[in-house]
Design goal:
Length: 237
């Protein structure tokens, strides 16, 4: 009985880990995607808003990505405007970016933790070589994918209908200071990344996570159905 309860608990934990794994992977992808930064710069005319040429904007994006993945506490990023080099971010922005970096690394650690558990659960289920464990794994993947799609649908609708409120609440929950309240007339960080950029990024993460769930759940379900039909066919011979 205890083993049965433990097995059920492990399966449900596996199903709950899948949405977290897919979402944190999508967030990590977005944070490190230079093309996503460049897309936002072009869409929101950031070159005109900041006075920075496109090569300098790309340098800024690459510098941010490098900083997020480095062991540096504070960012130092020099760009050129009107032929003059200058530090892109002021002290307030630099400290806020340290807080942002902490959230990105938290995302990495959660991604790693859920990935380890998902792979361990799948490995044990496959290694056991009993059909009922394979069936449990298959339904766990399909169920976890279904939960992911439901959550991403809710996130997508929330983003479409009330992103400004969600964005505000996210900052209140995620940061213990008000350094994220920047001035769009003088602070380059908010000029580089207006609210519309984060709106697009949220939709990107929701779609990428949902797409991953569709592929993972659909592929697993198809393999399970094919093997089941093959087993039935062999039994009827």
């Amino acid at each position: 009985m205890k083993l049965r309860i433990a097995g059920i608990a492990a399966k449900w934990l596996f199903m709950l880990c899948l949405p977290i794994l897919l979402l944190t992977a999508s967030i990590g992808w977005a944070a490190n995607s230079l093309w996503l930064y460049k897309y936002g710069f072009e869409k929101y005319n950031i070159s005109q808003a900041t006075g920075l040429a496109e090569p300098e904007l790309e340098k800024a994006a690459s510098g941010l990505i490098s900083y997020f993945n480095s062991d540096e506490d504070y960012i130092s990023l020099t760009v050129v405007k009107d032929g003059e080099p200058f530090e892109l971010f002021n002290q307030r922005e630099i400290i806020h970016l340290k807080d942002v970096k902490g959230l990105i690394w938290l995302d990495y650690w959660v991604l790693l933790g859920t990935l380890v558990y998902v792979l361990a659960y799948a490995g044990v289920s496959l290694f056991w070589r009993k059909r009922r464990y394979w069936r449990r794994l298959a339904w766990g993947v399909v169920g976890g994918s279904g939960i992911t799609l439901a959550l991403m649908l809710a996130l997508g609708l929330g983003t479409l209908l009330g992103f400004e409120q969600l964005f505000w609440q996210f900052h209140l929950i995620s940061f213990t200071n008000e350094l994220w309240l920047l001035d769009p007339t003088k602070d380059y960080l908010i000029m580089l990344f207006p609210q519309g950029f984060f709106y697009d990024t949220a939709l990107f993460c929701a779609l990428a996570t949902g797409g991953g769930a569709v592929v993972l759940g659909g592929l697993t379900g198809s393999i399970y159905y094919f093997n089941k039909m093959r087993a039935v066919s062999q039994e009827n011979r």
